C-alpha cells in the first residue's frame, strides 16, 4: 500500500513542521496545500520535507484547495494508493497508518476515518464547542460502530474509490459545501465505498 498525505493549510506556520514530521514517519509522500497563506507555511513545510505548493485563485475554501492538490499533485498511476487527508494542526499517533492498514486488510475497506481529541481554549467559544463535538463523535463511533463523517481531521481513502467520486460528480470535493468532509462521505457512500472509523 502506497500512502500519499495531503495537508491543506492556511497560515499554519506554527503547526506545519510538527504535522509533516509526524506524517513522514508513516506515509510515502506528504503534499502540503498552502491556501492563501500570508505567513511562511510554504517554506516551513518544505523545510520539514513536504512537497508544498500554493493554490491558484482558489475560491472554493478547503474543498477547492484539496481539489487543486488532487488534480495536480497526486500520481494517479501509483498502484494500490491511499490518500491520507489531514488538517495541518493534526498530529497523528505513531501507529495510526499501520493500524488503518490492518483494518483495511481485515475488512477490505475503501476508507478509514479517525477518532480524535484536542484541547480547547476555554476563552474561545468556538474551540470549546469543537472539543465537545470531538467527544460526541468519539462516543457515537464507540456506540454505533458506524461512520457518519470521514473527518477532514484525518481520514485514509482508497485512491481508486476517490476517482469514482470524481467520475460521478465531476470533482473530488464539492466546493459549494461548507462541510466538505461530510459531502465527501456521502459521495463516497453513493459510489459504494465501505468505510469504518475504528477506535
Task: Describe what this molecule looks like in 3D.
The protein is an alpha/beta fold. It has helices at 16-24, 41-47, 61-72, 96-107, 125-144, 159-169, 180-190, and strands at residues 2-9, 29-34, 51-54, 81-86, 111-112, 154-158, 195-196. A seven-stranded mixed β-sheet has the order 3-2-1-4-6-5-7, with helices on both faces.
Q: Features of this protein?
A:
single chain, 199 residues, alpha/beta, 7-stranded mixed sheet, 7 helices, 41% helix, 17% strand, globular
Describe the structure concisely for a colleague:
41% of the residues lie in helices and 17% in strands. With 199 residues, it is of the alpha/beta class.
What integer is the average pLDDT?
86
Any low-confidence stretches, pLDDT <50, length ≥5? none
Which strands sit side by side, in order, in the main sheet? 3-2-1-4-6-5-7
Structural class: alpha/beta
Q: In sequence order, what are the helices and strands, one letter per element?
A: EHEHEHEHEHEHHE
Query: Taking Cα atoms only, what radius of gyration do you get, to the nearest Å?
Result: 16 Å
Amino acid at each position: 500500500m502506497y500512502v500519499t498525505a495531503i495537508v491543506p493549510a492556511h497560515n499554519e506556520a506554527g503547526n506545519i513542521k510538527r504535522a509533516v514530521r509526524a506524517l513522514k514517519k508513516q506515509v510515502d509522500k506528504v503534499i502540503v496545500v498552502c491556501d492563501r497563506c500570508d505567513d511562511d507555511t510554504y517554506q516551513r513545510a518544505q523545510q520539514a520535507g513536504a512537497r508544498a505548493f500554493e493554490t491558484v485563485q482558489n475560491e472554493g475554501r478547503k474543498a477547492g484547495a484539496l481539489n487543486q492538490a488532487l488534480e495536480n499533485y497526486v500520481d494517479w498511476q501509483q498502484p494500490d494508493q491511499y490518500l491520507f487527508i489531514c488538517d495541518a494542526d493534526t498530529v497523528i499517533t505513531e501507529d495510526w497508518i499501520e493500524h488503518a492498514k490492518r483494518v483495511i486488510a481485515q475488512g477490505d475497506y475503501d476508507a478509514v476515518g479517525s477518532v480524535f481529541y484536542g484541547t480547547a481554549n476555554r476563552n474561545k467559544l468556538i474551540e470549546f464547542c469543537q472539543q465537545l463535538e470531538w467527544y460526541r463523535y468519539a462516543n457515537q463511533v464507540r456506540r454505533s460502530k458506524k461512520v457518519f463523517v470521514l473527518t477532514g481531521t484525518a481520514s485514509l481513502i482508497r485512491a481508486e474509490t476517490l476517482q469514482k467520486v470524481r467520475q460521478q460528480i465531476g470533482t473530488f470535493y464539492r466546493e459549494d459545501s461548507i462541510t466538505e468532509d461530510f459531502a465527501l462521505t456521502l459521495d463516497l457512500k453513493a459510489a459504494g465505498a465501505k468505510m469504518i472509523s475504528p477506535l
